[in-house]
Design a protein that fits this description.
Layout: E1 12-22, E2 28-39, E3 44-48, H1 55-63, E4 70-75, E5 78-79, E6 87-90, H2 102-112, H3 117-130, H4 146-158, E7 164-168, H5 176-193, E8 196-200, H6 204-210, E9 213-217, E10 224-229, H7 238-241, H8 245-270, H9 288-291, E11 309-310
Parallel strand pairs: 3-8, 3-9, 6-7, 7-8
Antiparallel strand pairs: 1-2, 1-4, 1-11, 4-5, 9-10
Helix pairs in contact: 2-3, 2-4, 3-4, 4-5, 6-8
GO molecular function: ATP binding
Protein name: ABC transporter ATP-binding protein
InterPro entries: AAA+_ATPase (IPR003593), ABC_transporter-like_ATP-bd (IPR003439), ABC_transporter-like_CS (IPR017871), ABC_transporter_ATP-bind (IPR050166), P-loop_NTPase (IPR027417)
Length: 311
């Protein structure tokens, strides 16, 4: 059963959120428009949508890295006004200090929070053990494989015991086999403390395999198009749940909602007519990584810089 709290104050709530940026040419780009989304305490929420629809921007608003142009962002009922110690953020790229050992990288978070070096190092050793990296404490990040670096990133984030965990396509650079292993490890670690999770991904299979619910965003400016409850039992094994008949049915339902948004985004970036007929059909989950088309559209050339917000 999915054990999330639905009658409590949401861990995360976005109410009518709009986010605008100045473009290099002096225009205004709207990344998000009137977006409403909630995540309950202990709930694992995956967010999917076409390229450029504002998925990463949503994470920046929740984390306090950016302020919304309009609307409200709340954590446990309180407005987000700055960075919050209760939030952990795992990025798509590595966030390790390249000159520090694995042990010191994992201990860095607690040290920045005022924990003594002795206790921080002890906690780091424990988390490295949990993610299967005992014996690699003295290595530098460049001496590790991609999968091992992602385990370091998990340890770096979870050692701070976040109540809210934000993840921005954290496994997209891994090969398929390694990604499935790390996904299983993530679920096992998440079960220990059950933070509320917002997991951004371009991989629909990954979203369904991990999450309690999947939120579909429209083509930009992004807003919530549909929300799907993932009623698959827990605990799950990512490598096995994909063969479940219910998984396949959920995939087909969500792809039906997502398909037109992906098509529109691709048409915009390619300069094609979005109303033109296509031969698109529902791709099978076995080919989701490429057939869903999430990574096909390129970012528009006028993508605004992060320091040019409009309020």
């Amino acid at each position: 059963m999915n054990a999330t709290t639905t009658d409590a104050v949401p861990a995360i709530e976005l109410r009518g959120v709009t986010q605008r940026f100045r473009t290099p040419s002096g225009g205004v780009h709207t990344a998000l428009h009137d977006l409403d989304m909630t995540v309950a305490p202990g709930e694992f929420c995956a967010v999917v949508g076409p390229t450029g629809c504002g998925k990463s921007t949503t994470l920046s608003l929740i984390s306090g890295l950016k302020a919304a142009s309009a609307g409200r962002t709340l954590l446990h009922g309180e407005p987000v006004t700055s960075l919050d110690r209760r939030v952990g953020f795992m990025f798509q790229t590595d966030a390790a200090f390249p000159w520090r050992t694995v042990l010191d990288n994992v201990a860095a978070g607690p040290r920045f929070r005022g924990v003594s070096r002795r206790d921080a190092v002890a906690g780091a050793r424990d988390w490295l053990r949990r993610v299967g990296l005992s014996g690699f404490e003295d290595r530098l990040p460049h001496q590790l494989s991609g999968g091992m670096r992602k385990r370091v990133a998990l340890a770096q984030t979870l050692i701070n015991e976040p109540e809210i965990l934000l993840m921005d396509e954290p496994f997209s650079a891994l090969d398929v086999q390694t990604r499935q292993i790390v996904q299983d490890e993530l679920l096992g670690l998440w079960e220990l403390t059950r933070p509320a999770v917002v997991f951004v991904t371009h991989d629909l299979e990954e979203a369904i395999a991990l999450a309690d619910k999947v939120v579909v965003l429209t083509v930009g400016p992004g807003t919530v198009k549909d929300t799907f409850t993932i009623d698959l039992p827990r605990p799950r094994r990512v490598q096995e749940i994909r063969f479940d008949a219910r998984f396949v049915a959920l995939y087909e339902r969500i792809w039906t909602s997502l398909r037109d948004e992906v098509r529109l985004a691709y048409a915009r970036s390619a300069g094609a007519d979005p109303g033109a007929p296509t031969k698109d059909a529902t791709p099978s989950p076995a080919t989701a990584t490429t057939a869903t088309g999430f990574s096909a559209p390129s970012e528009p050339a006028t993508t605004p810089s992060d320091d040019a917000e409009v309020h």
